[in-house]
């Protein structure tokens, strides 16, 4: 007969034996449910802001002179980059302002142009009304004009004609 080995804690059989059975005793089901903890979680936004990879601070050990100079040089470079970015942002905002002022100038120009065209249109309408009155008076006194028939040499008739063939066109 084979030796019986002790059952491993990570084996499938051990896990199955450790799982709770479906036959729970009724005292557990009659107990009230556990309430949520009184202390609420901090804001989700702070969790998101603080999540991510962060380097550990090594404040317990004193830096060597070379390390301190290297770190200072890196900080100076970072400040220079930030200054450059601030300058770029300021220039960009200035360009945006000039574009907006130009746009406003063009809008004023267009508004004045539309007002000018509206005034011209009104003047033209007034002149047309005056001319219509003159033409109406002239029509009463003028002899009737002769109707001119339009003759178009290239005008095609509505009928489609068959192509003309001669007896001499055939090759024998």
UniProtKB/TrEMBL annotation:
Compartments where located: Cytoplasm; Nucleus
Biased composition (Acidic residues): 123-138
Region described as Disordered: spans on this chain: 1-78, 92-172
Predominant location category: cytoplasm
Pfam families: Alb1 (PF09135)
Gene Ontology cellular component terms for the protein in this record: cytoplasm; nucleolus; preribosome, large subunit precursor
Biological processes, Gene Ontology terms: ribosomal large subunit export from nucleus
Residue ranges with Low complexity bias: 1-21
Keyword Nucleus among UniProt keywords: yes
Sequence ranges of Basic residues compositional bias: 55-71
Keywords recorded for this protein, A-Z: Cytoplasm, Nucleus, Ribosome biogenesis, Transport
Top-level taxon in the UniProt lineage: Eukaryota
Polar residues bias spans: 111-122
Protein name: Ribosome biogenesis protein Alb1
Protein biosynthesis as UniProt keyword: no
């Amino acid at each position: 007969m084979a030796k019986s080995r002790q059952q491993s804690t990570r084996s499938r059989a051990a896990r199955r034996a450790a799982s709770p059975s479906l036959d729970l005793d009724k005292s557990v089901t009659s107990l009230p449910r556990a309430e949520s903890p009184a202390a609420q979680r901090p804001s989700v936004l702070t969790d998101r802001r603080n999540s991510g990879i962060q380097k550990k601070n090594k404040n317990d050990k004193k830096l060597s002179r070379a390390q301190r100079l290297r770190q200072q040089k890196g900080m100076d470079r970072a400040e220079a980059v930030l200054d450059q970015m601030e300058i770029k942002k300021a220039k960009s905002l200035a360009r945006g302002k000039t574009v907006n002022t130009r746009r406003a100038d063009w809008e004023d120009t267009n508004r004045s142009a539309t007002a000018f065209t509206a005034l011209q249109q009104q003047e033209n309408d007034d002149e047309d009304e005056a001319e219509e009155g003159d033409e109406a008076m002239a029509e009463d006194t003028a002899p009737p004009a002769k109707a001119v028939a339009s003759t178009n040499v290239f005008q095609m008739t509505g009928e489609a004609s068959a192509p003309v063939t001669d007896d001499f066109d055939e090759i024998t």
